[in-house]
Design a protein that fits this description.
alpha+beta; Glutathione S-transferase Yfyf (Class Pi), Chain A, domain 2; Neurolysin, domain 3; two-stranded antiparallel sheet
Length: 675
Amino acid sequence: MSNPLLSLSGLPKFNEVTAAHVSPAVEALLAEARATIESLASNQEGVTWQNFAEKLEDMEERLSRVWSQVGHMNAVVNTPELREAYNDNLSKLTDFYADLGQDERLYAKFRALKASAEFAHLTAAQQKVIENELRDFRLGGAELPPEQKARFKEIQESLAKLSSKFEENVLDTTNDYALYIEDKALLKGVPEDVMQVASEAAMADQKTGWKLTLHFPSYLPVLQYAEDRGLREQLYRAYATRASELGKPEWDNTSMIEQILQLRLEAAKLLGFENYAELSIETKMAESAQHVEEFLLDLAKQAKPYALRDKAELDEYAKKLDIPDMQAWDVAYVSEKLREEKYAFSDQEVKQYFPEANVLTGLFKVVETIFGVHVIKATAPVWHETASFYDIRSQSGQLIGQFYLDLYARNNKRGGAWMDEAITRRKVLGELTTPVAYLTCNFSAPVGEKPALFTHDEVLTMFHEFGHGLHHMLTEVDYYSVSGIKGVEWDAVELPSQFMENFCWEWDVVRHMTSHVDTGEPLPRALFDKMVAAKNFQAGMQTVRQIEFSLFDIRLHRDFDPCGTSTALDLIESVRDEVAVVRPPKWNRFPHNFTHVFSGGYAAGYYSYKWAEVLSADAYSMFEEDGVLSRETGQRYWQEILAQGGSRSALASFVAFRGRAPSIDALLRHHGMTE
């Protein structure tokens, strides 16, 4: 028990965990888990929830709790030692779970439990656990003959390694890039706070001038504001070709894309599916890959006229800026200039009104108002000095959930923003385990004496990730594998996150979360009105861009032919022919750094963002009808959607809240795409 990873009675001991603890902890837990499985499989008593299903949940919860700490640290404080320990043990865990998913003895016991007299007396959540397990055993290869089982397991192990390596290549390419600028004139237009961070980064490397990187807080402001077109192109090219054959060979994801697709197709065919898209859809709300494509094409049909109008306006404005042939590296720059002229404000101007402390206070106020809870700063061991920790408590002071917050970009931290589970709620023998979440972003850190300042887009991201966190923390389900976000169909999991973004467009919310960094003045109503007027600026272009990625993903996994000559790059070009209005250059290598699909959980599921947007816009429309900060509607939303977790279908939860099936109308209205 001297190993901090094996201390499972409280919060993780991040201040004590090192890479050296990983292998002993994982090996000890795997040995314990295998002993549990043998004991359960050989038990001759009649199978019950308590003597079988609950004990398996105990085992999985312990493994998951430890591995989530390892995976989280690998993502946010990556070191060579930690990466090696993570990858070594990832293969052990993949091997274990592959065996578990194919164990015919356990599968037979779940079938017996479903057929038993006890099943009818179990709660709906317990029944859902059993039904999910039966499905997952089928999809894990439990019904395959021995030779195919062995091959299926090999495929799972290979895919785990390839996915991890794919993401590492993107991270390493991103971290490796540095552009040192000596001539300040080249940086004309770049905001002062970005310049200061770049100057400090150069000094840290014992260089003069300014250091630009591919991390978003450095990359995006250059694309948006740098007047030097050559500089924009240079940085865009580096970003758009990450982890491809156009960079360092050891970080090239080209062959990995092919291998991942081949293995996914082979796995799907072993299980009796025509393609991987069919296999992926099996655990989602959508009826079929065809249904997904029809949804995307219908949305494209409605959005493309608006996208074409956006693009024509942008092209026309680019000419005024002496850019007659607007390219991909000009789009953010021209867009920002056009928005400034059209709506008379800039992202940088707005950013001065959103210091970190005010944003968090405003976010917590929304949650406290509609759900009747309190968010309170607390203490816990953390992995980095800038991470923090909070409690969510009821009005009577009872602990409901807890979360870690890690907001700033830094080297050796994975890009993007995400929520993950540290501890999942469950109840065993009357004892409740409180859920704990990780909320991770990559925003600009404080500069000098000033606090961290967030753009409005970053405020949206903060609310988005907190929505995921609420889904995890406000669950009232007592069974591990359907608690919080667990067991929720993947194409519905973005509903609570995208739902929360809507509050960032409400004056009664935003005015309480702003304070100018220099004057302390709140955001002027006139400036907020301009932001709202600009809300749907280029909404058509943004929508077809998401549809482009989603169609590429679903077709890639439906139509991939290992014997064909068409590549992923060929496919994305053909999708762009159909829906895109902005064409990146031929050397753009987007598939090579599409981590959502090749190393995240979104394979044949990227469409989930657009589908969940339909659900979230429609759910939020009920708040628009009842009052956006309505406690009564908030309580209903909590009880029918957040509290239910994965204990029933996402569609059933939505209908229970909204009183009807979802409609696309609210989404189109929110995006200004209605006449």
